[in-house]
User: Which sequence fits this backbone?
């Protein structure tokens, strides 16, 4: 059950985000527009990962594989089949869901760190596979031709408005699904498996089915994000999308924001992405990696100060002026976030 | 008293504002912003920094009067009627997605007139696609993937010889060696990084080898930034080809050479594309182990002494103080592109992208920093005057061994084995 306050916040956020490009001096073709689009994209990616790793407790380092399959789905449709990306998007999402089930079915026999290590290895395997697979462009990758601007090709060059609205739609879909899951029976099953698989099974939860379903859903949503990424960058190659670097982005953003919380991925992305983009844009010319040092330092300090991420900080701030009414509200919110 | 202090503060703030914003506005009138997009961090950072330093040297030549230099744009200070070049630097970290977003930022936020970059072919591709869509100029010095100039782009211009040109040159040389020196080279091995650059180079090598009847007996890709190349080098050793074409950048190149020494194997000749071979810093690190390897080059201090004397002056006066080493074949080409852009702006007589583009596409430019001495672009943007020679390194000196016109030394063939040096 969602609290009224939580629902108000969700709809107010969507409304404000939707209005942004239509305000004077909104998105246009600015660098800030790029950063906002990336925040929405990476928040969606992190939320898709949050389903299996945050809510269900199965830490996966292999989501770059599903993200990459989605990216290749869209790019193959455009580059290889000379068609519209829209045909490749569902195909990529379906392929990612199938691959995730095929990979996870044996991996789910492993638990904890062993499962995480197994998923880690899948990224390397798929990276090498796509590097030598000529049909998907191999190491050279797939480069988009110059397409006509518009929703049909999902490509714009003069403005970021289209990409921003596309990212917002993706964000609404991914966060909307997670919002629905949170209060659905599935959400309780996921959390039950996370808290204790044996206990959940003793209460009649089919943990294998729950984990596989969560993984398939998580992979399909990650693939949609991958398709957006390919469209945005006009290119896809294995190091861009199927790398441990990319997998770590899924993990880092969610953990920084707050693992297993609804708003955590958005908060993580809202901190990390601007930090990454602006430090690179305005400090990287120094050529000494100062941007990367600052970036790393902030992550270390945040994690030392609050291992539960930014949502942990938010909760501790809300705890201080505790009144009976406020504490009741926090409990209600946490119910939803667990 | 308090109101006086308040007034003084207001005055200071106002003056600061006038100096900061007013100054910027007045200064902006006489500035041509050029974006630079190189890998300043990441695995190719050293090469990226060299490219940037090379551009800074070219800016010095253009912005200030250097009548002692016999080259276009050097005699007077600035371009047109006193415009100065200002570089706006960006780092793409060797990542195509970062290159694309940085190119957008440079064009849209920094309002640069053109971008010069991006060293890695995989980064140059999406960044130049941004330029083409926005109808802005993109000039490329060193990226060598032939695909870059096969896209039919109108706003993209590249100086470097492509992998296709170099592959043909390498196989021509092998044919010459077989004919003139009875070298008996029949088999070829390919050793290349698994990237856009390496894969393209290998594909072009296969085509060129087929033309001259060389049999490819080893096709060995490796991952960029690998920490161990033993299995790859063992694969080469097992196939034991007579010749090897290498495409390994920076640290990967020195690791490759050292691993061959470890396993005590060498082919008869090893010829490299635009790679770590060309970097004097890498050769210094390798010392005597780097000897007798070969590579295609369009610049070396030895070549410059004979054919590009002005390049040596620019190198010693402006580049070496920044980079602490001589120009290398990659970095000097970035400086060439800025000099060519400057000439095109001068000829256009205005900062008009379309006019400058038309001039770039149609005219031949004098280029004392290029081996051929001139630059002209074909449709698609490839420099049709691009020249490359084959050099062999000996005690960190690049000896030119082919073609005859540029030759200054005899080839040492076959390479001396590791245990006989």
Assistant:
């Amino acid at each position: 059950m969602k609290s009224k306050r939580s629902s108000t916040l969700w709809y107010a956020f969507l409304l404000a985000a939707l209005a942004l490009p239509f305000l004077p001096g909104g998105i246009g073709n600015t660098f800030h527009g790029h950063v906002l689009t990336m925040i929405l994209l990476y928040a969606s990616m992190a939320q898709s990962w949050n389903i299996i790793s945050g809510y269900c407790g199965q830490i996966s380092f292999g989501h770059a594989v599903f993200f990459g399959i989605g990216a290749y789905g869209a790019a193959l449709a455009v580059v290889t089949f000379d068609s519209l990306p829209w045909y490749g998007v569902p195909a990529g999402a379906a392929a990612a869901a199938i691959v995730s089930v095929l990979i996870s079915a044996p991996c789910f026999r492993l638990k904890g760190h062993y499962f995480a290590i197994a998923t880690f290895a899948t990224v390397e395997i798929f990276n090498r596979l796509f590097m030598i697979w000529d049909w998907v462009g191999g190491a050279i990758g797939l480069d988009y031709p110059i397409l006509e601007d518009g929703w049909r090709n999902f490509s714009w060059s003069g403005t970021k408005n289209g990409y921003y609205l596309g990212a917002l739609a993706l964000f609404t879909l991914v966060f909307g699904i997670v919002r629905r899951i949170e209060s659905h029976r599935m959400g309780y099953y996921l959390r039950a498996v996370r808290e204790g698989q044996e206990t959940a099974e003793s209460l009649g939860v089919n943990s294998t089915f729950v984990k596989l379903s969560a993984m398939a859903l998580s992979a399909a949503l990650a693939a949609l994000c991958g398709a957006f990424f390919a469209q945005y960058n006009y290119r896809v190659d294995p190091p861009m999308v199927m790398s441990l670097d990319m997998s770590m982005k899924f993990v880092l953003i969610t953990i920084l924001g707050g693992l297993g919380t609804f708003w955590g991925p958005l908060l993580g992305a809202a901190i990390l992405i601007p930090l990454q983009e602006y430090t690179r844009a305005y400090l990287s010319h120094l050529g000494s990696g100062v941007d990367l040092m600052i970036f790393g330092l902030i992550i270390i300090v945040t994690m030392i100060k609050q291992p539960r991420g930014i949502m942990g900080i938010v909760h501790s701030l809300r705890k201080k002026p505790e009144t009976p009414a406020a504490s009741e509200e926090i409990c209600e919110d946490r119910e939803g976030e667990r | 008293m308090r109101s006086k202090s308040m007034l003084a503060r207001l005055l200071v703030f106002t003056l600061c504002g006038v100096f900061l914003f007013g100054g910027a506005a007045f200064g902006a009138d006489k500035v041509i912003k050029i974006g630079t997009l190189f890998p300043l961090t990441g695995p190719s950072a050293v090469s990226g920094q060299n490219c940037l330093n090379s551009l800074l040297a070219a800016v010095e030549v253009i912005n200030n009067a250097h009548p002692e230099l016999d080259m276009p744009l050097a005699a007077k200070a600035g371009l047109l009627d006193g415009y100065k070049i200002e570089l706006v630097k960006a780092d793409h970290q060797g990542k195509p997605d970062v290159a694309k977003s940085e190119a957008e930022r440079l064009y849209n936020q920094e309002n640069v007139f053109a971008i010069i970059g991006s060293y890695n072919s995989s980064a140059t591709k999406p960044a130049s696609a941004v330029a083409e869509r926005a109808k802005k100029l993109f000039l490329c010095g060193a990226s060598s993937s032939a695909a870059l100039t096969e896209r039919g782009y109108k706003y993209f211009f590249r100086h470097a010889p492509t992998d296709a040109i170099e592959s043909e040159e390498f196989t021509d040389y092998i044919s010459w060696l077989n004919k003139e020196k009875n070298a008996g080279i029949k088999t070829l091995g390919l050793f290349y990084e698994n990237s856009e650059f390496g894969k393209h180079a290998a594909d072009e090598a296969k085509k060129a080898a087929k033309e001259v009847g060389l049999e490819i007996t080893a096709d060995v890709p490796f991952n960029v930034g690998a920490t161990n190349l033993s299995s790859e080098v063992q694969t080469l050793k097992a196939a034991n080809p007579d010749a090897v074409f290498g495409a390994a950048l920076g640290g990967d190149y020195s690791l490759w050479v050292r691993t061959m020494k470890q396993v005590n194997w060498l082919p008869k000749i090893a010829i490299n594309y635009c790679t770590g071979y060309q970097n004097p810093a890498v050769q210094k690190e390798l010392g005597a182990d780097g000897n007798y390897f070969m590579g295609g080059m369009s610049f070396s201090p030895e070549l410059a002494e004979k054919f590009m004397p002005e390049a040596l002056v620019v190198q010693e006066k402006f580049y070496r103080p920044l980079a602490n080493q001589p120009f290398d074949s990659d970095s000097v080409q970035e400086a060439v592109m800025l000099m060519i852009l400057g000439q095109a702006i001068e000829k256009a007589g205005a900062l008009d992208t379309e006019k400058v583009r038309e001039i770039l596409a149609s005219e031949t430019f004098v280029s004392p920093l290029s081996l051929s001495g001139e630059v002209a672009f074909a449709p698609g943007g490839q420099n049709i005057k691009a020249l490359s020679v084959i050099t062999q390194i000996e005690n960190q000196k690049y000896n030119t061994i082919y073609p005859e016109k540029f030759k200054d030394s005899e080839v040492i063939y076959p390479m001396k084995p590791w245990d006989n040096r």
User: Anything to note?
Assistant: Chain B is about 45% helix and 15% strand. The CA atoms of residues 103 and 109 of chain B lie 10 Å apart.
